[in-house]
Write a structure and sequence with these properties.
alpha+beta; three-stranded antiparallel sheet; 8 helices
Length: about 220
């Protein structure tokens, strides 16, 4: 913020909230009134991210400044933001005890962490014996094999078209007037993701849910693998 004043030339008055520059202090004061409403334009000049309050912006700026003021109460490691600290804390809960040394993401088991770390290292140990293409994860190779075999294990419940993999099926479902891949069997509302469907189902009364109900019944596709 301060450096902007040096590069402003005659416009030496700089708004600390948005970086706008003015040649007269009166003009700056008039401009500041635009930041007093509910749609306050508080954003980071370095990365463009917007914030609701000046305090939130100040906390964000610590990330750019390299300040690591968030301390883990379990192991005293420091982090540049509350989000990073919150993500790290999962390594102490027991649910996600395996933490990635590169990005801090946490996983339930060591094998999942090992597969994740290949994103950072670029390692691709799984090779297709048909064309030589390599992959980081085993399931990626298994999906790729279907290119050679022609297998299409995912079937659309709406039109019975089949697809090679899950992502292709999701794209296909959206051709049905934008249908999301999951539909509540009780109220017929669509959901864009499995987690959204799980959250949606919590809104229904337990007595409204059939005794034989399963989350798989909300899928708008069949999977034969």
């Amino acid at each position: 913020m301060h450096l902007l004043a040096h590069s402003a030339g005659d416009k030496a008055f700089v708004c600390i909230q948005c970086g706008s520059q003015f040649s007269k202090e009166e003009a700056l004061e008039a401009h500041r009134q635009t930041h007093t409403g509910t749609d306050m334009a508080v954003f980071c000049l370095l990365c463009g991210k917007r914030f609701q309050t000046q305090m939130a912006l100040q906390q964000h700026m610590e990330v750019h400044a390299g300040v690591r003021s968030y301390i883990c109460s379990e192991c005293n490691r420091t982090f540049p933001s509350h989000t990073a600290l919150k993500r790290h804390l999962r390594s102490h809960t027991g649910d996600h005890p395996y933490e990635c040394e590169f990005c801090g993401s946490c996983f339930r088991d060591e094998s999942t962490l090992k597969g994740h770390k290949r994103i950072h290292t670029g390692e691709k140990p799984y090779e297709c014996n048909g064309c030589g293409k390599r992959f980081s994860l085993k399931h990626q190779l298994e999906t790729h094999y279907r290119v050679h075999t022609g297998e299409k294990p995912f079937e659309c419940k709406l039109c019975h078209q089949r697809s090679r993999d899950y992502s292709a099926m999701i794209k296909h479902l959206r051709t049905h007037n934008g249908a999301s891949p999951y539909q509540c069997t009780i109220c017929l509302e669509y959901c864009p993701s499995l987690s959204a469907m799980q959250k949606h189902m919590k809104g229904h009364k337990p007595e409204d849910i059939p005794y034989d109900w399963r989350i798989e019944k909300t899928y708008l596709y069949l999977c034969y693998v």
